[in-house]
Specification:
Blueprint: H1 78-89, H2 95-98, H3 104-110, E1 112-117, E2 121-122, E3 132-133, H4 143-158, E4 162-167, H5 178-191, E5 196-200, H6 208-215, E6 221-223, H7 233-236, H8 242-254, E7 258-265, H9 271-285, E8 289-294, H10 311-323, E9 328-331, H11 341-349, H12 353-368
Parallel strand pairs: 1-4, 2-3, 4-5, 5-6, 6-7, 7-8, 8-9
Helix pairs in contact: 1-3, 1-4, 4-5, 5-6, 8-9
Length: about 375
């Protein structure tokens, strides 16, 4: 269908405010300053209610019923309760609680938690993520100190032994927040010498100097999630690039860090694409750890679930990943990025927690000994 009448009527009125004699304005009438592709006639039909908008229109999709293997145990136990009480008493917040992670009880009982820095507003709009999108508030430069002090409470009072630090994307900052990242790692290590630190970082828009700032802080594990297969990026991670994320992982590994990535399945990918992703990650980035879990739609306006992947398929993913050279593959319906993260740190980074604890005890005895 042509966008305009090729033979306009000579009596067609000119657009109000248009400069006389400008050929074409009478054929393409539009409001001044308006959208040049705006149609003046009503569309024949609308697809609005079918594009990531499941709010009750005629094409509303019924949610898929969760299978039996997606049932999480209620959290509990003395170690879990001790950490929860410290968090509540000091008004500390974790991603575990805010995201309703199904493994929260197990991880907290093991002494593992995930916190988020750099605010709660993301500059990106990924189709799977429930973090709000918008203009972030002013950068809080005192955050690293407060985070380290908070983690020390959990480290000393509840036996926290591994922390995963993540963040929103802060693309509006010149370094993407890398300086805050590095200071948070350094201050946390100073306050919690026996605790291993894993960073789950954004891609910093490919600013490799910013990435280097984080690498120089030497976290035990450098984690950056690919989230999905290459083909699905326009829908799942529209502001990210698959190859840019691969390059980030390659640079981290090249400088001697244990590297890690994770993906969701059930969001529209095919099994063969998952295997292709494994090949890409091993060939181009030599990444050590891969996590694979089931995508769960956080709200009706997020990307819908395409399928529930069976436990048997997750087992095959694990076998295929190990066969390709990953040192650790955590693959299962309930697996999330920080699942068994402390175990991975123990096995792959060589951290000697007992040595750290002995050293801390010695320092405490020296500092509390009465002077003569």
């Amino acid at each position: 269908m042509p966008l305009s009448d090729p033979n306009p009527s000579p009596s067609a009125p000119e657009t109000a405010g248009a400069a006389p004699g400008r050929k074409g304005l009478t054929r393409h009438p539009r409001p001044l300053g308006g959208d040049p592709v705006r149609r003046l006639d009503k569309p024949l039909f609308s697809l609005t209610d079918q594009v990531i908008n499941n709010s009750g229109g005629p094409s509303t999709m019924a949610p898929k019923r969760k299978p039996a293997w997606l049932r999480a145990k209620l959290p509990g136990g003395p170690d879990y309760l001790r950490l929860r009480n410290i968090l509540s008493e000091h008004k500390l917040h974790t991603v575990c609680e805010e995201a309703g992670c199904p493994n929260m009880g197990e991880c907290w009982a093991r002494g593992v938690a995930t916190i988020m820095i750099l605010g709660d507003t993301c500059t990106r709009s990924c189709g799977f993520c429930n973090v709000k999108t918008g203009k972030p508030p002013v950068l809080d430069t005192d955050e690293p100190r407060r985070v380290a002090d908070s983690l020390r409470l959990m480290y000393e009072g509840a036996g926290l032994k591994h922390i995963v630090i993540t963040s929103v994307n802060r693309d509006e900052l010149p370094d993407g927040g890398a300086a805050i990242w590095a200071e948070t790692v350094l201050r946390t290590r100073e306050k919690c010498p026996g605790m291993s630190i894993e960073v789950l970082i954004p891609d910093f828009l490919g600013d490799w100097d910013a990435l280097q700032t984080v690498i120089d802080a030497r976290p035990e594990i450098l984690n950056h999630n690919l989230e999905t297969v290459r083909r699905m990026y326009p829908a799942v991670r529209p502001q990210a690039k698959f190859d840019r994320s691969l390059e980030l992982l390659r640079r981290g590994k090249e400088q001697g860090l244990v590297t890690k990535s994770g993906i969701m399945v059930g969001i529209g990918e095919r099994d063969e694409e998952v295997l292709e992703l494994m090949d890409d990650v091993r060939e181009h980035a030599a990444t050590d750890v891969l996590t694979i879990g089931q995508y769960l739609q956080p709200t009706p306006n997020h990307l819908p679930i395409d399928r529930f992947v069976t436990p048997e398929t997750f087992h095959r993913y694990r076998d295929q990943g190990l066969a390709r050279g990953f040192k650790v593959v955590e693959s299962g319906p309930m697996v999330r990025s920080s699942y068994h993260a402390d175990k991975q740190a123990d096995e792959l980074t060589g951290i000697d927690r007992a040595q750290f604890e002995r050293f801390s005890d010695l320092v405490n005895k020296q500092t509390t000994r009465p002077s003569n």
